[in-house]
Known about the structure:
This protein is mainly alpha-helical. The protein has helices spanning 4-17, 22-28, 36-42, 52-63, 87-98, 106-115, 120-128, 134-153, 157-187. Helices cover 59% and strands 0% of the residues.
Amino acid sequence: MKDPLDHIGAFKTILNLQQTPDEVICRSFPATFRGVARVWFSKLPASSIENFKQLSDSFIRHFIGGQQHKRPTSFLLTVRQQEWESLRDYVKRFNKAVLEIDEADDQVIMTTFQVGLNNPDLIFSLGKMPPTSMTDLLFKAQKYMNGEVSLTAKGLMGKRKKDETNESHGKKRDRKDSYSETKAGKSSPNIPRKKTNFTLLVMPADKI
């Protein structure tokens, strides 16, 4: 039983619409139990419940520990697409995280989704034509997810990711080598050139 308060609330809403007597409610409520809730009810002492309020209070006290607590909206900022994670897997993971938080408006959800995004092509597209809603954003993302599927089917997805990584590392290495050469040139002392001695040849003029 994840949320006893929600379970009772849904049950009371249905019964209140029908103006059901308290006695009937008490007898109907156990019919909604499953698993551990049904076991709990079967172990209640006979004649220990006098009305629905007493039954619902006892039910809540027993199962309140299993109530699912929502995460703050800021939790979405911790969800980021990993370097080797596909866009489809990131979308699934992000949507799962959205279900774990308190209610948040569309704008917050869209912003946090884009903050965690690690797909240059989609980032550029969203920057050029900002989505109007989360549904619109996911519709745009679907195009790039389909593209990843096509690349994966051709065996090119892994190569593309690897090439992007190697290119990034190559640029860093080139900058580092350039810096090292410049530093070495500045710190090395001037080395004097070695003089070359020439031997003068003296010959008589008539022999030249």
